Every structure is written in structure tokens, then in C-alpha cells.
What we know:
CATH class of the largest domain in chain A: Alpha Beta
Number of domains of chain A: 2
Mean pLDDT of chain B: 77
Oligomer: heterodimer
Shape of chain B: globular
Order of helices and strands of chain B: HEEHHE
Low-confidence stretches of chain B: 39-46
Structural class of chain A: alpha+beta
Mean pLDDT of chain A: 91
Shape of chain A: globular
Low-confidence stretches of chain A: none
Largest sheet of chain B: 2 strands, antiparallel
Amino acid sequence: MTNPGDYITTELGRQPVIMTRHRDGSVHVLLNRCTHRGAKVVNERSGHAPRLVCCYHGWTYDTDGRLTNVPVPEGCGEGFDKANFGLARAPRTGEYRGFVFASLAATGPSFEDHIGAMKGNIDDLVDRAPDGELALDAGMHRYVYNGNWKLQVENVLDSYHVPFGHASTVNKQGVQFARREGDQKGAAVIETEKKQTATTWNDRKSFIVGNGHGWTSNTTLDDGKRSSPAFDAYRKVLAAKVGAERAAQILTPRLHNSLIYPNMSIMGLNIHVRVIKPIAVDRTEVTIYPIRLVGAPAAMNFGNIRLLNVTHSAASFVQTDDLESFVRTQKGLHSTLTDWVDISRGLGAEEPDRELNATRGLATHEMVVRAQFKAWLGYMREAA
Amino acid sequence: MRNGHANEIAKLIEPGRVHRRVYSDPDVFALEMSASSAAPGCSSGIRAR
Lengths: 384, 49
């Protein structure tokens, strides 16, 4: 959305919204609902329009949401004032390094208080772009599964499942990650000879910082020793922009997945942004956006985007494993004789990480899930 | 549940386990959706540039 008139449509929860770039450069998050008879004003996922015209009766809005034209205005009731019929807007929005967050609640903690330490996780991704900017203009992977939205949210920080749920990718024969630009070998999360989870995987950590947010640390999937003509050229461009020392810091793997609760994640290993949208109690839409690192060589961006086809497309080796687990979980939870879902792994083993100002646990534990439900319960209590 | 009792919701969450209804009960889901406009902080990450 770089130019005035650019827009995208999405949903906040299940409420349709339009995000626009206005002529003055400002960003507006508007409810996608004509103030006349209620039709969605914009139907496309994204596009460019100097004004927004409802298809039903032609009510026309400026890109800041103001109602500018009503056909046959003499039919309007006495005292009708267009100023009172602009598109409703999300009460509060916040922006950080190009990411826009919107809230439908008029009051509550500020965006700054909500996002908190997770700004650093956004920095980790955006700083990888030599020009310090990302573009999500390389298409997307979008799919719907028959399961609750929280199953996907919990999964992004769940390291316990990886050696089992993704065995075909992370055992010695499964070398999907060897397809990553600059990598020479695949992952060895499972030690084939011992037929057990690699000890290095058990050492992996997860972190929580309040509000349901969290992340998992780097893994054996990424040893930070990538090299190929495209990757080396990218490293050189980045170093030219930020200096060799800073480039080395940026390219030293630190994070695996980050969750910005309740519905967005960033993956550092195989870079993408994921947005999770609830449709029904047992139906969820997931959109995975490939990342184009602005300023990086085209071959590097091509490699990043290609790898996402392998791991997270609807026909991938990794994401489809998870979808199967979500669907089976939703079916299993129909059982009424076992009411409780266990999330107790590592309960009481959490410890403070004073350097990161976070709480730390083993990534194969379930501290992050408990943290998500703590935040969830806070929101639900307010709504109940 | 739809008319909401905080205590009833709280009973679904225990220190090391959660009730299956948090994933499968349409009334819990309806409350989640109303929470997204009543509760602070719920957000959707979307990129502007």
C-alpha cells in the first residue's frame, strides 16, 4: 500500500474492514459496510481506487471514509447530512514498521502497551531487509481447516510436536530444509540411529512476555552457516547498508516463531507472516504471506519465496501435517467422556530471563499455551 | 454462556488443563467474537507498506 488509493480488505475477528492509503499518506482502517443499506463496499482482496463506490446504490466514499456522493440526493430525508454517514472506522489503530494493528474496542491498554516487547521480534524480521522495509506483494498461501482457531495459534510456538508431526521433514531422510537458499544439509531434529529426538532440540527455549505473546528460540534447523551465490550476495548488500558487524548480528539466527497474540505470527527460520482468522468454532482461515526483503537481490527473495512453497503452501510438507493434527483434534474433542485437555508440561519449571526481561521455559513444554489462555481468560472475563 | 458469567468462563481454565469446550462450544466462540470488540488489544496484523 505505497500509493494513495491503494487498499486491502480483511476481517477483524469476523468483521469486514478496508484499510486504505489516503491522499495525504495517512492509513485508515474502515468498516467495510455501506452506511446506507449495509452492503460490503469493497469486494476485492486488494487494489487501487480513487474512491470507494458501493455496488448497490452507488453511495461513494473518499479513501478516508468520508461519504462524498449520494445518487439522487433529493430523495434523502430532511436534514440528511453526509457528514453523519461516513464509513465507520476501527476505534484504535497502531503502526510499527509498516505493520498496522487495529482494535474494535474503543478503550483499553494502548497499542504500545499491548505490543510491548514484541517490537523486537518485528525488528528481527524487518532488519533483514537491506532497505529496512518489507513488501508482502508476493502472493499468499491461504487455506481453511475444520478446527478451532486456537489450535493454529497454539501450534506456532509448539516445539513438542515437530519431531513427530513433521517426521517426514525433520528426520535424517527428510531434508526439505536443505532446499533453503544457502543451506547445505537438512535438519536432524530426529537422531535416526537412536530413533529419538535430538538432544539439541530438547534444549530449545520458549519465552513469554505477557499479553499472550511469546516466541521460540533458534533451532538446530538453522545453524547460521548458510552460503550460496545468492545468499552471499545478499549478505554483501546488507553489510554495505548497515556495516559488516551489524549484518552479522542480523544474520545470526535468534528466533524461530514469534506469536503476537491473538492471531499473528512471524517465522524467522523460513520467513513469513501468518494471520489467523476465526470463521466458526470449528472453522479457521489461515493466510501465510511470503516476505520480500526490500533491497535484497532478486535471487535471494526468489529463494525465500520458493522455500515457503515447500513448507507452508496448502500442498506443502509441513503445514499440511499440522492441518491434519488440527482436524483430528477437533474431531477428538467431540468425546464427552474426557472433558479436559492437558497443557501441563513444564508447569512450575518456568524461570525468569532477566537479560531478555521475559519468562523462559523449554520449548517442548507448554508454558506458552498456558500464557495464551491466561490472556484469553482476561479478554473473555471482560466480555462475559 | 451467551449472556455471560465470568465465573463460568473461569471454570474452563485450570493451571495445567483447559476444558474441551474452549475449542468446541459455539457459545464460547460467540463470546470470543464479542470479546474482540469489547476487550482491549485484540488485533489483526496487516501491512500498510
